[in-house]
Amino acid sequence: MEKEFHHHPSRMPDNSAMKQQKLPAHQLHFSARVVLTIFFATGVFCFCMGVILILSAQSIQEIEINYTYICENCAKLRENAFNFDQKCTCSVPFYLQENMEGDVYMYYKLYGFYQNHYRYVLSRSNNQLVGKDIMDVEDCAPFKVSQNKTPIAPCGAIANSMFNDTIILSYTLKSSVHIQVPMLKTELTWWTDKYVKFQNPSLINLSDRFVGTEKPPYWQAPIYELDTSDPGNNGFLNDDFIVWMRTAAFPTFKKLYRRLYRVQYFMDGLPAGNYSFNISYNFPVTRIKGEKSVVLSTLTWSGGSSLFLGLAYTVTGAFLWLASFALMAIHMTMKKKKLSYRR
Amino acid sequence: MGANDVSMIKAAHIGVGISGQEGMQAMLNSDFAFSQFCYLQRLLLVHGRWSYNRMCKFLSYFFYKNFVFTLVHFWYAFFNGFSAQAVYDTWFITCYNLIYTSLPVLGLSLFEQDVNETWSLHFPELYIPGQHNLYFNKKEFVKCLIHGIYSSFVLFFVPMGTIYNSERSDGKDISDIQTFCLIVQTSLIWMVTVQIALKTTYWTMISHFFIWGSLGFYFCILFFLYSDGLCLMFPSIFQFLGVARNTMNQSQIWLSLILSVILCVIPAFGYQFLQPLVWPVNVDKVFDRINHCKTRPPQVRVRTKLKHPSLRRSAYAFSHKQGFGALITSGKTTKTKPNKKNSFPVKK
Fold first, then answer.
1. Minimal CA–CA distance to A284: which of A75, A101, A28?
2. Which of chain A's residues have a Cβ under 8 Å away from the Cβ of B203?
3. Is the pLDDT score of B121 beyond 80?
4. Where do the TM regions start and end (chain A) (predicted)?
5. Contact, A227 vs B154, CB < 8 A?
6. Choice among A104-113, A132-141, B155-164 with the minimum mean pLDDT
């Protein structure tokens, strides 16, 4: 037998800790005390967080005006696509009860517009938008080329359906004196979007660089005429364009349109009083059974005025607290039963 | 062992061969082969039991993580016009099973031990769950599915509620699809990591490295895939430029992540605590005794009652199909002999 052992090599595994399953380790076991402490502490944390979030969401002031059907004749006009070149303006007055203090942001909000549709989200050309290759329209079906086969810039369904209402807020200073509230149209986008992801093909003579391309079919003016007064806001760098190109996740969304410029009468925000929106109604939502509105809102550290997170945290916290008491009760009863059996 | 045992070994679910003086044939046809009868005890009670335990944990965890991953799209379908828009970045879908969650599962399957080998040998009753198919059966699979459906519900609706009508603290956009994808992805990775951390009872250094390392690796890959350099080189392939940087500094994102993880993990955690108390199985009582013994100072070795001592046999074949296991372990097929120390104790 011993001779055999010399001839056949041993296939015994090594005597190392890993191969013999003897690695140094910590055995995790949650005792009742640990479990109950975790439940209790998490409950307290969630409840407090929830209360803080609810308080901060309540401190926001927000006002929303749905103007889809208020501007009746404009809505009816836009139902027919042949009226695209007819302008239609509409004035929506409203009364602000309290001062809106701090920074005020103006958003447009759309209902029932599915920017998250699969084919819609795909229909863009990032190569074009970064200024690398204006003629690259590969992914932009069905808005790749115009009727005379010239490539569209910017191509794709997202760019084509850009929101084109203009909204101007005016304030009634005295009985017949209306002033336009000063608003800023820059710094509406993420820094990385404006300075990295979207770049114009050249800084000067923008219209020359776009020779050989055409504007999207639903647009009134080509891309290099979006804001001729400011070259940093023209072409692909236009803030409204970039904001629109960042597709929303849900069919109801709001996008930043303007920020309050805090000068003159509006140093501390928007004072209470009579205001009105003068809207140039272009975007046809009634055909897709959607709606649109304008939102004026202040902000806090936790974002918008949505109460969801605060409520969810509070409810979770309360539930965990109750659960920890219930578990403690069950544990005590079971422990008593065990002890009584042992006796 | 003789060649007449070969057919028995082949027919069994697990055939064990003991190399000896009767030739190599039985050994070559068996699943396990060793040289001494006494090693059979360790094969069954230690390694076999651990293997069953690891397999069941692996299966239930693997099904769970894939249910959560996929079922989120079911909830999203109601909000994207049923157009099959994915809730994740395509690169995340590629890397999820391959890179982000493969190592922790591997660690669990290789190193997990519910009790160490000494206790396994002391308490052979711990082998019973394997015989009765307790740790992974249709009921456990359904529990896994329900947990997965509930987790996917939380994983979708908590981020949705957070960003639905919300903006960043400086007024800019947060309710776009790329941010939503990022939040859901990150919450998912955290959730499955915490879940496997709770499932792992035997924490070696390698387990720590695999689990926390995978999480850290996810964040590294995330920042790499969403970096300026890569996205500018291939703009049509890497489209999420800047999303991580612009979203991760918002407190509401982290709060939503913490809430999703708490809501998903706490029910499982509570159930894990409650189940041995309220619906105990026989094995739970053994675990209680083990924990009791561990906390007390070492005493005289606890000897279990021997009812039917077995005979030294030349071959063993085990089957977990109905009928054979009961027949073999009942001792009806062996001759009775007086009590022997250190022999394989069989309980009915």
1. A75
2. 25-28
3. yes
4. 34-55
5. no
6. A132-141
